[in-house]
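Subject: for your reference before the review

Hello V.,

The reviewers asked for a structural picture of the protein, and I figured it would be easier to keep everything in one thread rather than splitting it across files. Below is the amino acid sequence we used in the manuscript, unchanged from the supplementary table.
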Amino acid sequence: MDEREFTERADHALERIEAALEACGVDADIERKEGGVLEIEYDDGSRMIVNRHGAAREIWVAARSGGFHFRWDGIAWRDTREGTELFAALSKLVSAQSGQSVRLAP
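And here is what came back from the structure prediction:
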């Protein structure tokens, strides 16, 4: 995938993540920033960052429980270590960090 296609796919994923977070009602402030960064700040002051990483052609997630990298497999964004789909992984990460049960639909 070239840089243009990666940027389009990653930005679309970030838009979908933002919409899913807002729709699920999680107690957090969600802010899109320049350069393909989505910042989520929870009521307890902790943060989660979801961003596109152009050099690696991946979406990176920095959460309280660790860092995760997701690569496009032609169908979905998948964790490079476990193969978990991005929205399924974010559902678990957001639930753990927010203390609310959250299911994010792609």
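For the response letter, the relevant points are probably these. The mean pLDDT is 94. The chain has one domain: 3-98.

Happy to draft the paragraph if you're swamped.

O.
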